[in-house]
Amino acid sequence: MGDDDRVRRVRDAFLAADYTAAGLDALLGPVASRALSRGETVPARRATRGGSPLETLVRLFLLQLTVPNSAAEAALPPDARELGLVMAHPDGTRAVVDVRAYVEDNDDAPPWWVVSDLGTGLDGVERRLPDDHVLGVGGASTMLAQLTPREPVGTTIDIGTGCGVQALHASRHSDRVVATDVSPRALHLARLTAGLSSVHVDLREGNLLEPVAGERADLIVSNPPFVVSPAGTHTYRDGGLPLDGICARLTSEAPHLLAPLGDLVLLANWVHISGDDWRERVGGWLPGHGVDALVVQREVLDPAEYVAMWLRDAGEAGDLSSYDAWLQALEEARVEGVGMGFVRIRRTDVATRSVLIDWPHPVEQPLAPHLSSWLDRRAWLAASDDDRLLNARLRVAPDVVQEQIGQPGADDPEHVVLRRSGGMRPAVRVDTATAALVGASEGTLTVGALVSAVASVLDDEPNALQERLLREVRDLVDQGVLEPF
Fold first, then answer.
1. pLDDT tens profile 278-317
2. Residue 257 dihedral angles phi and psi, to the nearest 5°
């Protein structure tokens, strides 16, 4: 009897019990669900006392409780034990792994289940995670899913797949999904994830890009072991290269596997070295030719914050000797902070263009479509000299609002700010001439005609105004305030 048949029967049991995202919402309700997301199990315990198959599955896999053997047998076929999902215990049956329903933002899509190792921290009880621990769905995997474009593609490669979350997402819009990981345990759990979710994934063991050397992909995604750590003990977080070497390697090498106009989306950490600009460090990782790159730093932690966060993540918050040794290693490397963010790269056939920014501000999720539009606009601007720009027709993006700031009762505002409510939500301060041009940008008149009209109204010298306004227009197109029509 093959594992495929066993997995199918377990899936059938999940469906029969309604162990799905919708079923869990209905059973637990908002209060218990929110509490469980905080690691508090008591409200969910109270909601699952009835002994139904669904309640049993919640208590097994989400609450990590021992359940009576009779209840486990009513909820699951013997295949669950043979697959290593549950195990016998003197007091009953316990879960060996975490299995939870997972859903994309599409209520009509078939259900998914993600299999990972049991986490730590429920009800404040911490335990040290083993070195080969495989993480489940978390903040990083959710963020990467929101950053990844979802246009249909031929081949997607997921580097460092872990339990297979990104591969699930990719299966919905890819003809073929290849997922790699250096950890045999991760691949085992990713195989269960794919099987329970009725998704085909080509799983390959190996380090980083080695299993896909020489291949081409339309999309590459990676949530790599990016933690800046001297120990290198936990496979899920520690890549084994000095400092931010894992992210440097993927940023520089993965683009060469992309097909023309293919995309790379990478979560990354990078160090801030005393006296150096992080932009120069990370910008130096980019290939010298053939990519458009966006590098966005979302947060910077000082060394103590950073180390404490990752020790808590691994259930090692009380390990003061590891804390001290980690800080010592960062100090010796002159690390004064660690930046956390993402890299979005598109393969081109021209010289590399890049923008590297600090952006700790709120953004609209999913961000992926907005990042794609940003790359499109930057390519359009690079191909547009002043003559082409003057002959272009632009329109104001639909999510732009104008804010006027000044003293109450004043005739004219001190500042005019154009703010987008979508995407990265930029705000651009402009003068009255630029605001007038933007206000008239409806896609009917060329930029040149609008500049002439503004010069006439303001009684300004046309050539000088044109030079200044063209610089402003380029920035406004880059920010998405104005769009080519």
1. 999 999 999 999 999 999 999 999 999 999 999 999 999 9
2. -90, -5
Q: Verify that 317 and 349 share a domain, yes or no.
A: yes
Residue 107 lies in a domain: no
- Identify the three-state secondary structure at position 143: helix
Mark which of 95, 129, 162 sits at the end of a domain: 95
Tell whether 199 and 292 lie within a shared domain: yes
Closest CA to 238 of 310, 164, 167, 180: 310
* Distances, alpha carbon 441 to alpha carbons 171, 426, 446, 478, in Å: 40, 19, 8, 15
**Residue 41 near residue 63, CB atoms below 8 Å:** yes
What's 275's domain CATH number?
3.40.50.150
Which of 285, 282, 250 lies closest to 265, judged by CA? Answer: 250
20: amino acid identity, one letter: T
pLDDT (tens digit per residue) in 420-461: 999 999 999 999 899 999 999 999 999 999 999 999 998 888
- Number of C-alpha atoms within 13 angstroms, CB side, residue 449? 11
pLDDT for the residue numbered 107 = 63
- Do the domain assignments include residue 103? no
Euclidean distance between CA atoms 92 and 198, whole angstroms:
30
**CA 424 – CA 371 distance, rounded (Å):** 8
CA distances from 223 to 127, 148, 282, 291, 342 (A): 24, 11, 17, 20, 10
How far apart (Å, rounded) are the C-alpha atoms in residues 301 and 325?
A: 18
**Residue finishing a domain among 346, 366, 382:** 382
**Tokens 């209905």 sit at which residue?**
26
Residue 1 has pLDDT above 60, yes or no: no
Q: At what angle do helices 368-382 and 139-147 cross, to 10 degrees?
A: 40
- Find residue 93's DSSP bridge partners: 67, 88
- Of 226, 242, 222, the closest CA to residue 310 belongs to 226
97-102 and 92-95 strand pairing: unpaired
Task: Identify the CA nearest to 337 among candidates 403, 245, 275, 401.
Answer: 275
Tell me the residue ranges of DSSP E strands in 130-188: 153-159, 174-181
Domain span holding position 418:
386-484
196 residue type, one letter? L
Q: Quick one: 345 and 402 in the same domain?
A: no
Q: Which string of b and e fits 148-174 if b means at least 16 CB within 10 Å?
A: bbbeebebbbbbbbbbbbbbbbbbeeb
**Is residue 369 located within the same domain as residue 401?**
no
Q: What is the pLDDT of residues 57-69, one digit of tens each?
A: 999 999 999 999 9
